[in-house]
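sry for the spam today, last one i promise. struct tokens for design, 103 residues
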């Protein structure tokens, strides 16, 4: 399993950004093999973690036309800058909350 770590500094996030982000999340999860997607925003900074079964799935997602268009819009309008890192998950364990919810 691999994790893609996307860190960005927001310039201006608008309604279109929210719509595109939701569409891309659903597309990655339903058609490209993304296992899980989590994003957090705080003080103009965004961190998104997406988990993937293999590097081929990540490559296919990176080359998707809708994703490429969103990247272009991100550079032109939404982000002052961003960084992407890809790492292999070598161990994964959890301590579930007492309610049974995953962290």
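last one done:
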């Amino acid at each position: 399993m691999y994790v893609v770590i996307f860190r960005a500094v927001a310039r201006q996030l608008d309604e279109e950004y929210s719509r595109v982000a939701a569409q891309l999340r659903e597309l990655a999860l339903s058609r490209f093999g993304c296992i899980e997607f989590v994003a957090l925003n705080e003080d103009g900074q965004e961190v998104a973690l997406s988990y993937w079964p293999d590097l081929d799935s990540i490559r296919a997602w990176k080359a998707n036309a809708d994703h490429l268009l969103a990247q272009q819009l991100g550079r032109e309008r939404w982000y002052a800058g961003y960084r992407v890192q890809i790492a292999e998950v070598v161990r994964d364990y959890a301590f579930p909350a007492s309610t049974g919810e995953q962290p």
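The longest strand covers residues 79-88. ok im logging off now
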